[in-house]
C-alpha cells in the first residue's frame, strides 16, 4: 500500500514537473515571439531612418554640386568678359599702331620724294655751276683736270724737297754720332758706382780665343745672344773679361748664367745659345725660389704661400733708387720689429707689413699701375692680412694707417730710405727711362719683343714675321720713332732697329 502511495506521489510530481516544463516552454516561446517582433519593428525603423538620412545626404550633395556648378559658370563668364575686354583693347592698340605706321610710311614716302627732288636740284646746280666755272675760268673740264694734276705735282716736289732736307738733317746728326757716343761713354764712366753695379756685370774669360767663338762668324753668335737675352755685350772694354750690360737685373742675371754655361761648354752657336739661355732661365728660377726662402727665413715669417716665396726671391734682382729692394725690405723688418717691441705692438704683423710693403715693385715691369696698386693686388690675391694691405697703401700716403703696425711700416720706410748712401736717384731715373723706352716700343701690336741697348741709344725690335712684311717694316719703324720722340725724354738720338726673322724647325728621325 505504502509502495503504491509512493508511486502515486512520484507520478503526481512527474506530471507537475512536466506541466511546469510545458508552461515555461510556452512562456519562453511567447517571449521569443515578442522579441522577434520588436526586433523586426526596430529594423524597419532603422531602415526608415537610414533611408531618410541617405535622402538628406543626397540632397546636400546635389545642392553642393549645384553651387559649385554655379560658381564655375560664374567664373567662366567673368573670364570670358575679361578675355573679350583684352581682345577689344588689343584691337584698339593694333588699330592705333597701324595708324601710326601708316603715318610713318607716308612720311618716309614724302621724304624719299623730297630727297629725289633735292638730288635732281643738286645735279642741276652742279651742271649749272660747272657751266659757270667753265665760263668764268675760260677752261674746259679737261683743262681744269690738267691744271689740278700740275698743282699736285708741284706739291709732291715740295714734299720731296722736305724729305731731302730731313735726310740731310739726319745725315748731319749721324755725322756727329761718334763724337756724341764718346761724350756719352765718358759721362757714363764718371757716374756713381750705383749705376755701374746696377746695370753692368763682368764675366771672366779663360782665354782671349773664346772671344772669337762668342762673336761668331760675321758676328752671328753675339747678335743671337743679345737678341735672345736682351742684353748688350761689350768684349773689348776690359782684357780677359766680357761685360754684360742691361738695366734689368733679372735679364742680366740670366745672361750671366747662360754665358758662363757657354764658356764652359765651348760649343757656341745660335742653337746652343738658345739651349743654354733656356737652362739659365730655369737655374735663375730655382735661385729665385731659394733666395725667397732665405728672405722669409731671415725675416722670421713662416706662414707664406709658395707664390709669395717666389715673389720675395725676385726682390734680389730689383733696385729702387739704386737700393736693392730685398736689402731694403729686410732692413725695414729689423727696424719695424724694434719699433713694435718698444711700442707694444704686434711684432710678427709689423715684420710682415715691412717685408711686403714694396712687393709690387717686382712686377712693375710686367703689369700696369704703380707698385703700390700692384702690391695691394698681390696681397689680396694671396690672402695677406688687411693690415698688410693698408701698410702697402699707407707707406706712400695713398691711405691713412688703420693700425699701429701700418704706421710703424711707414716710419721704418722713411728711416731705411733716408740713411746716408742708401739710395741714388740717378740709377732709378736711368732704369725708369730705359723701361719706359721699351714699353713705348712694345705698345705696338706687331712688336713681339723690344730691348734697349747701348744705354738707351738703340732699341732692337723683334717683330712678328707673320704680321709684318718687308714693306710694313719701313712704315712701322717710322711710326715707332715718332712715338718714341713724342712720349720719351732722352739725350741725343735713339736708333730704332727692326728685326724680322722666320724660322722653320723640323726634326729628322
Keywords:
16 helices; Hypothetical protein af1432; 3-stranded mixed β-sheet; about 5% strand; about 500 residues; mainly alpha; Alpha-Beta Plaits
Structural overview:
The longest helix is centred in the first third of the chain and has 136 residues, at 2-137. Helices cover 71% and strands 7% of the residues. It is mainly α. Among the domains are: 1-134; 319-423, Hypothetical protein af1432, CATH 1.10.3210; 425-509, Cation efflux protein, cytoplasmic domain (Alpha-Beta Plaits, 2-Layer Sandwich), CATH 3.30.70. Helix 7 (249-265) packs across helix 8 (270-299), helix 10 crosses helix 14 and helix 11 (347-356) crosses helix 13. The protein contains 16 helices and 8 strands. Strand 2 and strand 3 (241-245) form a beta hairpin. The strands form 3 sheets. The protein has a 3-stranded antiparallel sheet. A 3-stranded mixed sheet has the order 6-7-8, covered by helices on one side.
The whole-number mean of residue pLDDT values reads 77
Overall morphology: flat
How much helical structure, as a percent, in the residues?
over 70%
SSE order: HHHHEHHEEHHHEEHHHHHHEEHE
The oligomeric state of the chains shown is single chain
Distance from N terminus to C terminus (CA atoms, Å) equals 156 Å
How are the strands ordered across the major sheet? 1-3-2
Q: Given the helix and strand composition, which structural class is it?
A: mainly alpha
Number of strands: 8
Low-pLDDT segments, ≥5 res = 178-197
Radius of gyration: 53 Å
The fraction of residues assigned to DSSP E strands is 5-15%
Q: Give the helix tally.
A: 16
The largest sheet, given as strand count, sense and whether it forms a barrel, is:
3 strands, antiparallel
Amino acid at each position: 500500500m505504502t509502495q503504491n502511495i509512493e508511486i502515486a506521489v512520484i507520478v503526481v510530481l512527474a506530471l507537475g514537473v512536466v506541466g511546469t516544463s510545458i508552461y515555461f516552454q510556452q512562456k519562453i516561446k511567447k517571449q521569443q515571439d515578442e522579441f522577434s517582433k520588436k526586433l523586426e519593428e526596430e529594423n524597419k525603423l532603422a531602415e526608415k531612418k537610414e533611408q531618410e538620412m541617405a535622402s538628406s545626404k543626397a540632397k546636400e550633395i546635389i545642392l553642393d554640386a549645384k553651387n559649385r556648378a554655379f560658381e564655375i559658370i560664374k567664373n567662366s563668364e567673368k573670364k570670358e568678359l575679361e578675355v573679350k575686354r583684352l581682345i577689344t583693347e588689343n584691337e584698339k592698340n593694333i588699330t592705333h599702331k597701324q595708324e601710326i605706321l601708316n603715318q610713318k610710311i607716308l612720311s618716309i614716302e614724302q621724304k624719299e620724294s623730297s630727297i629725289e627732288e633735292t638730288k635732281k636740284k643738286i645735279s642741276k646746280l652742279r651742271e649749272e655751276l660747272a657751266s659757270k666755272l667753265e665760263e668764268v675760268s675760260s677752261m674746259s673740264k679737261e683743262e681744269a683736270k690738267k691744271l689740278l694734276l700740275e698743282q699736285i705735282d708741284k706739291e709732291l716736289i715740295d714734299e720731296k724737297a722736305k724729305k731731302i732736307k730731313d735726310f740731310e738733317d739726319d745725315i748731319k746728326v749721324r755725322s756727329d754720332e761718334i763724337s756724341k757716343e764718346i761724350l756719352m761713354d765718358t759721362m757714363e764712366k764718371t757716374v756713381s758706382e750705383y749705376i755701374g753695379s746696377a746695370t753692368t756685370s763682368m764675366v771672366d774669360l779663360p782665354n782671349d780665343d773664346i772671344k772669337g767663338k762668342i762673336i761668331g762668324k760675321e758676328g752671328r753668335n753675339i747678335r743671337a745672344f743679345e737678341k735672345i737675352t736682351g742684353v748688350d755685350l761689350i768684349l773689348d772694354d776690359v782684357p780677359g773679361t766680357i761685360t754684360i750690360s742691361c738695366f734689368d737685373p733679372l735679364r742680366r742675371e740670366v745672361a750671366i748664367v747662360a754665358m758662363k754655361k757657354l764658356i764652359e761648354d765651348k760649343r757656341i752657336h745660335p742653337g746652343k745659345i738658345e739651349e743654354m739661355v733656356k737652362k739659365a732661365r730655369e737655374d735663375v728660377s730655382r735661385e729665385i725660389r731659394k733666395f725667397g726662402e732665405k728672405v722669409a727665413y731671415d725675416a722670421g715669417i713662416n706662414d707664406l704661400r709658395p707664390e709669395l716665396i717666389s715673389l720675395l726671391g725676385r726682390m734680389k734682382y730689383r733696385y729702387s733708387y739704386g737700393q736693392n729692394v730685398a736689402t731694403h725690405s729686410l732692413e725695414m723688418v729689423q727696424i719695424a720689429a724694434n719699433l713694435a717691441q718698444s711700442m707694444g705692438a704686434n711684432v710678427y704683423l709689423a715684420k710682415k707689413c715691412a717685408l711686403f710693403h714694396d712687393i709690387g715693385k717686382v712686377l712693375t715691369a710686367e703689369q700696369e699701375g704703380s707698385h703700390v696698386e700692384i702690391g695691394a693686388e698681390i696681397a689680396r690675391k694671396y690672402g695677406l692680412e688687411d693690415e698688410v694691405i693698408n701698410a702697402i697703401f699707407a707707406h706712400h700716403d695713398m691711405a691713412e694707417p688703420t693700425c699701429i703696425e701700418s704706421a710703424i711700416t711707414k716710419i721704418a720706410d722713411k728711416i731705411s730710405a733716408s740713411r746716408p748712401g742708401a739710395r741714388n736717384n740717378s740709377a732709378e731715373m736711368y732704369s725708369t727711362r730705359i723701361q719706359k723706352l721699351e714699353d713705348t716700343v712694345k705698345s705696338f701690336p706687331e712688336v713681339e719683343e723690344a730691348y734697349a741697348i747701348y744705354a738707351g741709344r738703340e732699341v732692337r725690335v723683334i717683330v712678328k714675321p707673320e704680321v709684318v712684311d718687308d714693306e710694313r717694316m719701313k712704315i712701322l719703324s717710322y711710326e715707332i720713332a715718332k712715338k718714341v720722340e713724342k712720349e720719351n725724354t732722352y739725350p741725343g738720338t735713339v736708333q730704332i732697329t727692326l728685326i724680322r726673322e722666320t724660322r722653320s724647325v723640323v726634326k729628322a728621325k
